[in-house]
Design a protein that fits this description.
By secondary structure, this protein is of the alpha+beta class. It is 36% helix and 34% strand. The chain is built from 3 helices and 4 strands; from the N terminus they run E-H-E-E-H-H-E. Helix 1 runs antiparallel to helix 3.
């Protein structure tokens, strides 16, 4: 499996709106073939956010790039935030606790 990790920064006062925007984005990308799950993390204190999408293959992750880029830009522009980084990883272990 593969994972795309995106890091964001938003004004801390906008965290509730950030969560709403991430919920909408997850809904939009959830129909992409090969998507296994999406985790969204936010810091209410700093306004930092992280999304982790897990894909069944590198090909499925690659095929989602354009839609993922569009959604990231939409969120950043809407909430006057910025995308700090986007990285792709091979998922070599995952424990369902």
């Amino acid at each position: 499996m593969w994972a795309r990790v995106s890091r964001y920064q938003f004004p801390a006062a906008e965290v509730e709106r950030v969560i709403e925007q991430f919920d909408a984005a997850v809904g939009a990308i959830s129909s992409q073939p090969g998507l296994k799950r999406v985790d969204v993390l936010v810091s209410r204190k700093s306004g930092a956010g992280i999304t982790i999408s897990v894909w069944e293959s590198a090909e499925a992750m690659k095929a989602s790039e354009d839609e993922a880029d569009r959604l990231r830009q939409e969120i950043a522009v809407e909430l006057i935030g910025w995308i700090q980084s986007v990285e792709e990883y091979e998922l070599v272990r995952s424990d369902g606790l």
